[in-house]
Amino acid sequence: MGIFKLIIRRLLLGVATLFVVSIAVFLLTNVLGDPVKRMLGRGALPDVVTARRAELNLDEPIVNRYFTWLKGLLTGEPGVSYTNGTPVWELLSDRVKNSLFLMALSSAISIPLSLFIGGYTALRRDGWADRVMSNQLLVLAAMPEFVVGAFLTVIFATNIWHIVPAVSRIRPGESPWSDLDGMILPVATLVLAVTPHVGRTMRAAMIEVLESDYVEMARLKGLPERSVLWRHAFPNALGPTLQVIALNIAYLAGGVVIVESLFNFRGLGIALRDAIPEANAPVVQFIAMFIATIYVISNLMADLFTIIVTPRLRTRLQ
Amino acid sequence: MTYPVTVPVDDTIDETLDSAVATSQPGLMRSAWGLWRTRIGVALVVLLVGIAIVGPWVAPYGASEFVGTANMRDVPGTWLGTDYFGQDVWSRFLHGGRSILFLATVSTLIGFLFGSAIGLIAAYNRGRIDDVLMRFMDVILAFPQLLLALVALTTVGPKPWLIISIVGFTTIPRIARITRGAAVPVVERDFVAAAEALGESRFRIITRELLPNVIGPLLVEANLRLTYAIGIIAGLGFLGFATERNAADWGLMVQENRVALSVQPWGTVLPAIAIALLTVGTGLISDGLSRTVAGIDRGRPDS
User: What is chain A's mean pLDDT, rounded?
Assistant: First the structure.
């Protein structure tokens, strides 16, 4: 059975990718510049720099440091913050939860929405609803997230209407449930950022299926349209559909950085933004690996779902 | 931002390419111009690029010139009032487009040059070189572009060369994949075999026979990448990592002035509109081109 081999190959490829990503993240945060010099400023005395380097174990050979770091990541001890010595996990565990909650809520809204929009516009292809929505999606898809978010803030929070809070106010240690109002705009922005891309993908997949020979065959057989759609078109659009869901999550993993920053949402994105000027490499490395892992897993899932669900691909790849 | 999908993409590319080779060649630009969306897109881009280039010369004040109390809407001698630091919003807006435009264009060009070269070489040589090149490209694709830029900036700080390198570098595999997908079926066509039989050099075959036949999809992709590059660089600016502190930059302006949104919206809204119109403009051009190349709008599974 070739499909298991294929799945295992994909899994190994995912692991290998993450391994390469970890090397890239580690090198980029260590080789391009010197975190200690950036932290202490240009006027720092050489003695102080040396002492600080020793304190942060930066004087060990880079290969050793890489493997220590990798081992720490895999065993759940991803180092300590350069600025205050707190373990990275302790510093970020709250934020991981908040960001995951933000992503989950945005997915829960944007997945059905984009599936509906994509499917509906494909069925009504070139009708007025399709044209209007496709153009809307095109315009939204081109704009960066923070621009969309800024417009939403102006319209709904600060200038035209004042119906939702402009910033999120989750206190340290509190769950995002404590400030659901403050999540409206961040979630809306992510939904608007993700839905156009995913909706367009869904529309394309659905059009492809609807144009296929087997759907035409089913129609020619005289099957009622509803049964053509649900029995023949939908199962074959399911592969791309699941793929759409995985893609969605990958999108969100990248989008949260900007959106959290725009709405002061207490998550990983803000932690990343704040860690960069401090050259706080362990924090940056952890967040980068976390987001990359979500990203790689979602893309992997997308591939796997597609292979498993699409009969055409399953047989061709054997 | 961009995300890789590995499995079904090649199918659609091959499919769209057949029609591209057949229909798009001589009048790609002309047929794309026939679509309204292309014209609107070009108009928007020309407008915004014009503002970005000419702006600094016609701005009434300097980019960081102090003109009055901070965050005021009615300040004598200014059009739109002052920003968070008492600088003229309108002047900063006029100054703030150049860096985004410059960084985005140069990094897209780098991605375009290297990406198309790698894609064409992989498609023409196939076999080992193809495998190695494309696997390497897949690895680069496994990371969101913005995130990679942020990681790279951590120990170096905001440096234009670094932003250009990272955004350019991460654009390469995205363009290479499209180019390769479009070039593979072309390699198998008779005129390539004819050129080989005539003893033409590899370089000549790749540049004279392959390149002209994939230019349609390549232009679509390059344009799309430009749209995303603008988004990423504006996003970096928004996070405060694209330019030096307090430099005039559309992305950074949104960040600086959003706290005072309710009393002085212009400082945020004006640059946000500029970025929106610019990206929508390039997005419309991409869509116009891709409709011309592919015949119909299939969306983009590889977005």
Answer: 83
- Cβ contacts of B283 on chain A, cutoff 8 Å: 138-139, 141-142
Nearest CB to A291; choose among B37, B147, B283: B147
pLDDT band at residue A312 using 50, 70 and 90 as cut-offs: low
When comparing pLDDT for A19 and B78, which is higher? A19
Q: Do A204 and B298 touch (CB under 8 A)?
A: yes
Residue A314 pLDDT > 80: no
Closest-CA residue of chain B to A16: B139
Supply the pTM of this predicted model: 0.86
Contacting A residues, span 56-95, partner chain B, CB-CB under 8 Å: none
Mark yes or no for CB contact B157/A30 under 8 Å: no
Q: Chain B partners of A272 at a C-beta cutoff of 8 Å?
A: 150
Contact B301 A204 (CB under 8 A): yes
Tell me: pLDDT of B42 over 60: yes
Which domains occur in chain B, in start order?
26-96+248-303 (no CATH), 99-242 (1.10.3720.10)
Write out the CATH class of domain A90-317: mainly alpha
Average pLDDT for B212-217: 85
* Model confidence pLDDT, tens digit, residues A124-172: 888 888 888 888 888 888 899 999 999 999 999 888 888 888 888 888 8
Is the pLDDT reported for residue B231 higher than 80?
yes
Secondary structure in 3-state letters for chain A: CHHHHHHHHHHHHHHHHHHHHHHHHHHHHHCCCCHHHHHHCCCCCHHHHHHHHHHCCCCCCHHHHHHHHHHHHHCCCCCECCCCCCEHHHHHHHHHHHHHHHHHHHHHHHHHHHHHHHHHHHHCCCCHHHHHHHHHHHHHHHCCHHHHHHHHHHHHHHCCCCCCCCCCCCCCCCCHHHHCHHHHHHHHHHHHHHHHHHHHHHHHHHHHHHCCHHHHHHHHCCCCHHHHHHHHHHHHHHHHHHHHHHHHHHHHHHHHHHHHHHCCCCCHHHHHHHHCCCCCHHHHHHHHHHHHHHHHHHHHHHHHHHHHHCHHHHHHCC
Instruction: Sketch the domain layout of chain A as residue ranges.
Output: 22-77, 90-317
Nearest to B272 among A151, A250, A310 (CB): A151
The ipTM assigned to this model is 0.86
Question: In the predicted model, what is the mean pLDDT of residues B51-78?
Answer: 86
Nearest to A158 among B261, B275, B299 (CB): B261
Cβ-based contacts of A296 with chain B (< 8 Å): 142
